[in-house]
Amino acid sequence: PKKIGILTAGGDCPGLNAAIRGVGKTAIVEYGMEVYGFNAGYLGLIENDYIKLSESQLSGILTEGGTILGTSREKPYKMVKKGKTKNPEKPKKIKKTYEKLGLDCVVCIGGNGTMKTANMLAQEGINVIGIPKTIDNDVWGTDVTFGFDSAVQVATEAVDRLHTTANSHQRVMIIEVMGHHAGWLALYSGLAGGGDIILIPEVPYNIRSVCKKIEKRYENKKPYSIVVVAEGIDHPKGKSAAAHIGEAIHTYTEIETRETVLGYVQRGGSPTPMDRILATQYGSYAAQCIADGCFGTMVAMNKNELTTIPLSEVGGNLRLVDEEHPLIVKARRMGVSFGDEYL
Ligand code: F6P
């Protein structure tokens, strides 16, 4: 039988176990393959640290958050000296593990960094298939990553809950959600939660414009405001984006502000039904791709159709929010501010 490995790498997110289960069960039940799970991402491949997964070990994990395999931010191709030498030892060890076990393919579940590494392994002759995951929804080449919907749900609930307390105290509430480079989570939770101002890294904001919007709301007898910010918006180091925006708003408007940094609750807990289904589909399709010998690719969703994209086109690229994204255009027309209207 064919032997396959599975690993989960990078920051975790809800749906990883659903994806592992999707790959593993399809591989075992449909194709009679042997399945090995590598512990802690690429570290498991480097250190030959794995467990054989049976069908029963893959049962009962669909709804669990996190990953039964563990994860790490290990980058086997990281330069030893910045911009200079690569350490050849780790890729060599990976090759040794792959050959010793007699693997036919490794399924790498992760975000952009994971896909970049998977592509490098593919170029060294290792059969790999990528599955895109991240709460940031910023993997190039796919319309959606699993983990995103679950994070949107958590962040939206938080925004919802801020409305009542903001109203009671007539305050400006600033809530910071994750997203270093991409504003998808802030955009979606901001819209779903009825945020008044949404600040994302892709749309440069001006604090005067943000304050003007808040003051206008005041004049219109709306004495409180909700500002949803992505962690990656322009702000000074050593302070959170939310703290920076809150202090600036208070300074200019003298209105009371309060900040909430949502943090890791966004990455924890059980996946939403949509994420369970997406991760299951990606996993099952990846097993089919192995059977078809479609290596060096990442499974992806393109206009609601499962497809594959060469890993060489994915690695290193980020899928950011377009400033003219239809959601932004529509939100602006409804009076939602992106912090750049009154320049
Ligand atoms: O999973 C992506 C992400 O959530 C980013 O938005 C965030 O900045 C980063 O991970 C932080 O993760 P960690 O602290 O695990 O490196």
Automatic annotation (TrEMBL):
- Where does the signal peptide begin and end? none
Annotated SUPFAM superfamilies: Phosphofructokinase
Site feature Important for substrate specificity, where: 113
Q: Which residues are named in the active-site annotation?
A: 136
Q: Which Gene3D superfamilies match?
A: 3.40.50.450, Phosphofructokinase domain
The reply on keyword ATP-binding is yes
EC nos: 2.7.1.11
Complex and partners:
Homodimer or homotetramer.
> Which family is it part of?
Belongs to the phosphofructokinase type A (PFKA) family. Mixed-substrate PFK group III subfamily.
**What PANTHER family does its record include?**
ATP-DEPENDENT 6-PHOSPHOFRUCTOKINASE 3, PHOSPHOFRUCTOKINASE
What is the protein name for this chain? ATP-dependent 6-phosphofructokinase
Originating organism: Tangfeifania diversioriginum
